[in-house]
């Protein structure tokens, strides 16, 4: 693998940059390129205080330890609007009480089991269809088009509608999946919070009517219904909310992931090797997602007061794990800014680790392999590397990416 690397242009290493502390995750310079800041933090302040309250862990070792630290949980703190006690008050809190990312221990286990089992059964029925969908969507792309809005967004919506067993207008579903992702970042603006709650109600209504109408055999909704028939305590609301989670994850991460991969493939000059089949697409996708990690940070909450790296964390404080920073930690990944498809996957943090590890990883990889394969075959490339990012905390989502044909 290293021999292969030597023949390629060395991608630039980010220069370490000292941020203003406490760290503001919404600072435009950080949103534009967080990697130099992560590098500085790993060296100088690995457990950093955040302006909105709470801490961010940036070292690989601390993040890995956090996945199994019993002092850190996923259930929202009692002060959060998403806390279980607000379930009767806000749709967002009611939804959070049903889905694995916001559940701990014995509340998490049975729901995760339902989602995993239904997910894998539905995934089995999808083989081959993703390639067809990817080719259909990429065939509509021309030079000058925006890869995201014209390509990866419509592809990810079509594949998740097929996967979940839902038929709806792509524009409506896109608006709803975008609203859902507000739950993973601090939600302080009351007007936005109201909008998010309204969108989540609408999202639930779309999925509830698909469930009532009888979803196609083998779809996620049908598999969740089947699981319910053997587990009488599962409610229709749990089915709908977990389908909502999977649908939104499979849209937002994929449309953004595809654009990030375009950047990595261009920077590492991979197009020729991919066209000739000298480079395995799945390895390229996985290494590309390490370099440009879509879920930059995942949230946890301190269940008790504890200490990490000499910093006292008080009970109920939010603690964010910077997966994107861990994925570039030099102590684990030599020449961490360079593309090297031979790295040990056991250390890569892109999909998390442990109890809450991403359930949808095989589908995510299959979607991106199919889509990027179709892009390579159509000889579409980024027009330029000057990309802006959406100002979303927690995720790194390119705004648009204009294409050229070669
Ligand atoms: C490139 C695409 C994707 C990335 C980078 C990604 C990443 C992640 C990460 C980092 C977590 C959280 C781990 C944690 O909190 O410890 C997660 C959780 C999850 N993901 Fe994904 N994901 C992707 C695509 C998908 C897809 C396509 C689906 C479903 C079809 C999905 C379903 C889920 C679910 C259900 C969870 C919650 C697991 C739990 O809390 O027990 N993801 N994902």
Describe the protein in words:
The protein has 406 residues and is an alpha+beta fold. The chain has one domain (21-405): Orthogonal Bundle (Cytochrome p450), CATH 1.10.630.10. Helix content is 49%, strand content 8%. The chain has helices at residues 2-6, 28-32, 35-44, 60-67, 91-96, 105-124, 129-139, 147-164, 170-180, 190-213, 220-230, 236-267, 271-276, 281-291, 323-326, 361-377; strands at 47-49, 55-57, 72-73, 297-302, 306-308, 311-313, 318-322, 380-382, 403-405. Strands 1-2-7-4-3 form a five-stranded mixed β-sheet. A two-stranded antiparallel sheet has the order 5-6. A hairpin with a 2-residue loop joins strand 5 (306-308) and strand 6 (311-313). Helix 8 runs antiparallel to helix 12 (236-267), helix 9 crosses helix 12 and helix 12 (236-267) packs across helix 14. The longest helix has 32 residues, at 236-267. It is globular. The model is unreliable at 1-12 (pLDDT under 50). It binds protoporphyrin IX containing FE (HEM).
